[in-house]
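Our consortium's second objective concerns turning raw sequence data into structural hypotheses that experimental partners can test. To show how far this objective has progressed, the report includes one record in full. It was chosen at random from the queue rather than selected for favorable results. The single chain below, 200 residues long, was entered without modification.
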Amino acid sequence: MSTEPRQDPADGYVEGPELEERIERIGFLLAAGATITFFLGFVFAYFYLRSLDNAGLWKPAGVDPPDGWGIAITAAFVLGALCFWASVAAARRRRPAWIPAAGVSLLLALAGCVLQAIEYANVPFGPRSGGYASVFYGWTALYVVVALLATYRIETLFAAGIRNRGNREYAPEVGLLAGAYYWALLAGIGVLAWILLYLV
């Protein structure tokens, strides 16, 4: 990461790298806090509706998602997060291997979203098939929406790498570490969803 201050020639304002790092850190904390709070609503709904089990309709017979799809979706997001971490580690060392690692991370994240859409076609129940079904559809659908929004970070970094692939020393200076932390958080939420929605 460059240690040279950034200067705007229009007004002479100098912005040091420590300010960029602080902005990046605060942005991650705000996004992480909002994401955790958002998905805590589904965790609460899961345990609350399960404990009530009104008229035995929490999880009626036949309301079971296919385990294979859950494993594939979770694996895609976790592996995508790991590849993004590998990309960040390579970029911080100015190694050109960060570009293909970011590309693989992007493909895995998109594959996870596509697999989730395909799973819906193979789930033998609808969102109105009890409390579990409503939590399942709400959580997984909105998780994919958040994941798609988060792929923007990977895509912009990957696109910048492709544009500058002729320069072997090029690596983005802002957004790498915060993006990696956020993807690790999303992967963790995906693992939690897999445990609650498929295993428990």
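The partners drew two points from this record. The chain has five helices and two strands. The mean pLDDT is 88. Both points have been shared with the crystallography group to help prioritize constructs.
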